C-alpha cells in the first residue's frame, strides 16, 4: 500500500504520463488539487478558483486582439452595436475563472467588459477614427492600471495611488481633466509635461487629497517623471487633455469594477454567478416588500 510521499510521487507521475503536468496545469495548482482531493472536507467553489487562477498570458485573448461583438448586445443599452462589429481588446481580467473577461473598445470609442466565452476572434480588422486610434494607443499604454494590485511593481502601485487621488478629486467636484490640469499648464499649449504634473501633485498634497506620511512622503520630481513614462503613450514628453482624460477614465473604471465585484447587487445579471442570481432572486423581492410596507430592517 502506498503512503505519504510515495502517493504524491505516484500522483505526479500519473499527471506527467497523461500530459496534465506541465502542459495543462502548473505545479502549485496541481499540489492544491491534490491536497483538496486528499481531504475529507467538501471542496468549495472558492477553493477550486484558488487552484485554477490563470495568468493573463494564458488567456484565450490578449491585449491587442481584435474580437467580434456578441449577438446578445443587440438590445438594451448596447443596442447601437451589431453582431460582427470589430472591437479591440485593451485589457484582460483572469482573476475569476467563472467570469474571465476582456475590456474592449469599439470604433465609436465605447468601452465595455465582455466575458471571454461570449466573443470570438474577428474576421476583419479593427478600424477606428483618429480619435479612437489615439484613445486605443493611450489605453494600451495604461493597461498596467488594470493589473491585480499584488502583481504591480512598487512604481505602478505608487503611481496608481497618485492617479486615484486625481480621479477622486475630479469626480467629487464634477470637473474634467482639462478643467483641472489647465491650472498647471503654464505654457498654455493644451498639454502638460512632468514638471507641470508635479505642480498638480504638490497641489493635491497641500490640499490633503493625496495621503502622505513620514514613511510615505510626497513623490519627488524623479518619481513623477517615472510615473509620466507609464502613461505617455507616444513618448513625446507631454500629455494633452484627451490623453489625460483617457488615463483618468481607466482609473475610474478600475475603481468602479472593484466596487461592483464586491457587491453583486450592482452587477449586470450576465456577470453574476449562479449563486449570486439565487441571492438576488431572494433579497430583491424581500427589499421591495419592505419598501411597499414602509418597513425597516430593524
Automatic annotation (TrEMBL):
This is Amt protein. Keywords: Calcium. SUPFAM superfamilies: EF-hand. The keyword Calcium applies. It comes from the Eukaryota. Residues 172-207, 219-254 form the EF-hand domain. CDD domains: EFh. The keyword Protein biosynthesis does not apply. Pfam families: EF-hand_7. GO terms for molecular function: calcium ion binding. It comes from Symbiodinium pilosum (Dinoflagellate). The lineage of its organism: Eukaryota, Sar, Alveolata, Dinophyceae, Suessiales. InterPro entries: EF-hand-dom_pair, EF_Hand_1_Ca_BS, EF_hand_dom.
Amino acid at each position: 500500500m502506498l503512503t505519504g510521499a510515495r502517493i504524491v510521487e505516484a500522483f505526479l507521475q500519473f499527471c506527467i504520463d497523461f500530459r496534465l503536468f506541465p502542459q495543462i496545469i502548473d505545479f502549485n495548482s496541481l499540489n492544491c488539487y491534490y491536497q483538496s482531493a486528499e481531504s475529507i472536507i467538501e471542496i468549495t467553489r472558492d477553493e477550486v478558483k484558488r487552484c485554477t487562477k490563470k495568468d493573463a498570458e494564458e488567456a484565450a485573448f490578449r491585449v491587442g486582439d481584435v474580437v467580434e461583438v456578441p449577438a446578445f448586445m443587440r438590445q438594451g443599452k448596447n443596442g447601437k452595436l451589431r453582431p460582427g462589429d470589430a472591437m479591440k481588446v485593451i485589457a484582460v481580467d483572469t482573476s475569476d475563472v467563472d467570469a474571465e473577461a476582456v475590456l474592449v473598445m469599439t470604433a465609436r470609442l465605447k468601452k465595455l467588459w465582455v466575458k471571454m466565452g461570449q466573443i470570438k476572434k474577428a474576421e476583419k480588422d479593427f478600424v477606428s477614427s483618429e480619435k479612437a486610434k489615439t484613445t486605443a494607443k493611450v489605453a494600451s499604454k495604461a493597461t498596467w492600471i488594470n493589473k491585480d494590485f499584488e502583481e504591480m511593481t512598487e512604481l505602478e502601485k505608487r503611481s496608481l495611488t497618485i492617479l486615484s487621488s486625481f480621479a477622486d478629486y475630479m469626480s467629487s467636484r464634477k470637473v474634467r481633466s482639462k478643467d483641472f490640469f489647465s491650472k498647471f499648464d503654464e505654457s498654455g499649449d493644451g498639454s502638460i509635461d512632468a514638471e507641470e504634473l508635479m505642480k498638480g501633485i504638490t497641489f493635491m498634497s497641500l490640499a490633503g487629497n493625496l495621503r502622505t506620511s513620514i514613511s510615505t512622503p510626497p513623490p519627488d520630481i524623479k518619481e513623477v517623471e517615472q510615473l509620466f513614462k507609464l502613461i505617455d503613450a507616444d513618448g513625446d514628453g507631454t500629455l494633452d487633455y484627451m490623453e489625460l482624460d483617457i488615463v483618468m477614465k481607466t482609473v475610474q473604471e478600475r475603481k468602479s469594477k472593484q466596487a461592483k465585484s464586491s457587491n453583486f447587487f450592482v452587477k449586470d445579471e450576465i456577470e453574476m454567478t449562479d449563486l449570486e442570481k439565487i441571492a438576488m432572486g431572494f433579497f430583491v423581492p424581500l427589499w421591495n416588500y419592505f419598501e411597499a410596507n414602509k418597513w425597516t430592517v430593524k
